[in-house]
Amino acid sequence: MREHSEAELDRHFARLAARLPAGPARFIGWLRQPSSRYARFPLAVLLMVGGVFGFLPVLGLWMLPLGLLLFAQDVPVLRKPTARMLGWAERKWIERRRAKGGP
């Protein structure tokens, strides 16, 4: 079961990197390396705090899932719930796009 959660998180990271320009995609790739653990943890916390203050102009709710995704990379207990939450959000997003007539 643990491998499934890790594979699911890897899939979400890959989808994120595919949608980003080359520079940010390389940065995400660097963050995922085991040697970047000490940079990943504070960045994840900052993203989650910024996501809570999503009502401010620059900050947004987009920061919360990204922070959770980075945090789950280092905390095995969070991998499965984070993968399930992101899978649910992805399904809802697809349903919404289909309901609006999108691809």
Can you characterise this structure?
The structure is a single chain. The chain has one domain (2-99). The protein is 79% helix and 0% strand. The protein has helices at 2-19, 22-32, 37-52, 63-74, 76-99. The longest helix has 24 residues, at 76-99. The protein is globular and about 45 Å long. The model has no long low-confidence stretch (mean pLDDT 85).
- State the secondary-structure class: mainly alpha
SSE arrangement, N to C: HHHHH
Quaternary structure classification: single chain
Number of domains: 1
Overall 3D shape: globular
Q: Indicate the percent of residues in helices.
A: over 70%
**Number of distinct beta strands:** 0
Mean pLDDT across every amino acid position: 85
Beta-strand proportion: under 5%
Radius of gyration: 14 Å
Largest sheet, in brief, is: none
Note the gap between the termini. Answer: 32 Å
Low-confidence stretches: none
Number of helices: 5
